[in-house]
Fold these 4 entries.
Entry 1:
Amino acid sequence: MSSTVPCPICKASLQLTPDGEFNSWVCPAGHGRAATLSELYERMQEDEIHRLWSLAKASWVASEPVTGRACPMCDRLMVTITVPTDVDEVDEGQPGDGADTGLETVDACVVDEVIWFEEGEIDEFPADLPDAQPTAAEDAALATIRRDFATSLDEATGTLPAPGEASGTEWPAPPVVAPAN
């Protein structure tokens, strides 16, 4: 990969641009933006990301593209896919999944896991919904898992918990080192 990331439309150097927790490479001429699959979790609903990636991989496996836009990261041709969207964040076909309400076309590089959105396309995808806060019961279960994991790790490595975190075990006295003659 070169030190510059070219726009797949005009070849201008894309600018890495933060937008809150979401980072993408934006074309200075306004043609669009590139984002990694992992960054999309900061911006889009998970079910659309899962569907987008599933469609991209299936399209790539069916036939590696011979025409289209080059990936800004590696210059391979990207697959062009049309992604159905909906307002819920439930994976396709699962209980609670609503009807599709739109279609968005994007380009994807399956090798680099990069998605190219023309100007405004990313805004057409439903925004990520906030995750629900854990219940008191879920918090208690997580605390138990953390404690059990720490205990197992301590036993496996032969270490003891930090002072104040001891689980009823007394700390051994420090070893006595004889002075050198």
Entry 2:
Amino acid sequence: MPDALARLWNALRPGGTLYVSFKHGTGERLHGERRFTDADEASLRQWFGRLSDVRQLPKGAPMRARESVQGPTRGTLSSRP
């Protein structure tokens, strides 16, 4: 996951915003033929901590984490200066 996030982050233009959303938890799982990565706050801090110029946008920014049919998710909005 850190490599995938780094590629997405490096592709952003200055001022760009990256939104990620994960089901709260840890680890990877398969559901049918689809692969999912779950994440908690510590995982997100670790993954984004490797990137430069990351600024987490405040809660209540345009998109929010929401409850889904599958359970709680965590969303993170980060922007590049």
Entry 3:
Amino acid sequence: MCVDIQKSKTLDVFADEHFLNNADGAISFINQFVLFLEKNDYKHLADKYLILPNQNGSFKRSTELQLDSGEIHEMVKDAYFFTGVDIRIKLLMSSIYFPLPENTATNLYPLADAITNYIENHKNKLGEDNDQERLVFQNFFSYLKSTEDKTIRNAFKILYSNLYWFYNDDIISDNMQKAEKYEQLLSKHGVKSFQELEELLKQATSNVQSAEIISISKEQLAQIGINTEDELLQVLNVLLGEGEITDSQLGELPSGMSIEDISKKFLHSSKNNRFSREYYEKIMNRAIEKVFYYLKETGRYVMSEKLEEWKNTSYSKTVFWAKKNGTDIRIVVRPSDDDKIIFFYEQEVAAMDDTNYELWTDNNDGNTRMITLGDIIKTTGISVIPLKNLNPK
């Protein structure tokens, strides 16, 4: 059996050859097999044969592997890869239980030092010529800013003091433009300082305490066909006009919209309406859950064992890691309620600016499926795709 496992070289191949491509079944078998070796004093065979999968799915000898203590976040492993070392090569797959010595567990701090040095040496140029690197460090930056883990904050304390190292020329230029616009706005309204602006905002807030405020995101507006500021202004002009709505006003609405659409969808203030934050988070979480269990059932993907773990180790809110046919891929998840898919987050577009991704959707009506380029061409009727802005000059 050791020889058969070793011949497969990877977990994916072993699962395909012996478990009808069911990775979970293959992992369960290997766990039972190594437990048998341990209980019957054959543990030395794990030193002789390549039978233990690392976190890339390749079989290794036990002497080549270290324990994953769980201290190192997947985002840290992704960032560490660009220092020239793939830490997952020497880490035992977390779902495999084999008694490696505790002193082989990988420590976070050497990795943090290497990542910090790499970012400092490439400051303001991260991912300049590598889209995957850019995406990884964008997500790593977001992770550092959001985590409350004291160990992470201590290990990366130099980075926390120099977060500007992550900024490239485009980001810096964008921030300079924003600062210039703020200066112009303050000057236009005769505001001489930010303290004065703060006082004016406080006064304005006190004047609208009785007003009901409804927060609506760009994505929620897009669900009913409002995709630009001009279209939003058209709707508001109609809604805020005095008297009855005229035919000319109806003609000013964005294409495909009626006043019934607005009154039923846009103006409804219930917490359960389709444009509340609660509703959007509900359908997004539902889509992620449906896609996760669907992919697990297919047996063609190597993924986290549990849904929460998959979410916690995601690249972003809607972009997730998986392995298929031995290759790391990104799973982009979107709800497809109302027979629409709307891309809102930059990370989604960045993830699909590569070949190793799949777009999966769920419409809450039993239809969980992958969307291909062919699907998009057929449903949109596109027959010509201009490449002028894609081809290098």
Entry 4:
Amino acid sequence: MRALVLLALPVALSGCIARTAVDLVTLPVRAVSAGVDAVTTSQSEADRARGRQLREEDERRGREARQAEERARREARERGEDYPEPQPDRG
């Protein structure tokens, strides 16, 4: 029984040792790859960031337009003038 275990041991350990050797050899490559991924921006990330920036600018312009509209209404009301209601877009 002991002889059988001793004969099977090198076969069982050879896969483990080979896997460890492969892990050690590929470790520097994986480390460099992770570093490059961390400092570069993919095209999809850039597209998402640009889309977010455009949406935020659009929201800001809309907010400013609504504030200007309200300010104009208030000033017209203070002067006793009628302020025309905005017409809905019919495009």
